[in-house]
Amino acid sequence: MLKPFYQDLHPEAGCDEAGRGCLAGPVFAAAVILPADFSDPVLNDSKQLKEKTRYALRDMIQQTAISWAVAKIDAEEIDQINILNASIKAMHLALDQLKKKPSFIIIDGNRFKPYKKVPHATIIKGDGKYFSIAAASILAKTYRDDFMLEHHEKYPHYNWIKNKGYGTLDHRRAIAEFGRCSLHRASFQLKSNVVG
Fold it and tell me: Which of 91, 93, 108, 119 has its Cβ near the most Cβ atoms within 10 Å?
């Protein structure tokens, strides 16, 4: 069972991103504020859950959360400001959209830039430790997956329906054959073993 809160300043927002390591598509981030009495035995890091479970949890999170928001930074801006800055900017944009402003922010990972004057803590593997970060990881992941599935219709040869823009062998082979499209991150280098 994950922990409800990192500290006693309420409300506390959890933040996470999805798609940082992808070759194509935006990076998505979410911010979630959960009720003080929140608990769920299934909620966990999105990477530990099956797709069907993630979407069921998304519905629950959106109905239960005090406030939640999702934001994205597109590939073109990722190329301009780099993926770390884009991930943090997406988190800031998600925090901007929260209807209730947090008194404290917890972030998955070890890098963050201060958001306004709100105190924060970065937590390595935080999406497997705290409910609000896990909830943010599920929202960011499912909304990003929806985006990639939607754009699979336009670019079916990249097989985003399966790889969601990550650098799988089939995706890299498709890039070698068809080149990049407007959703690909030009600053991301392809591994050379596209035929192996």
Answer: 91
Q: Hunting for tokens 């498709």 — which residue is that?
A: 174
| Amino acid residing at 70 | V
- The pTM of this model reads 0.94
CA distance 25 to 12: 29
Write out the two tokens for 12: 């506390």
Question: Can you tell me the distance from the alpha carbon of 32 to that of 15, in angstroms, rounded to the nearest whole number?
Answer: 7
Q: How deeply is 42 buried, as exposed, middle or buried, from its count of CB atoms within 10 A (0-12, 13-18, 19+)? A: exposed
Token duo for residue 134: 């896990």
- Residue 10 pLDDT level (bands cut at 50, 70, 90): confident
Superfamily designation of domain 12-178: Ribonuclease H-like superfamily/Ribonuclease H (3.30.420.10)
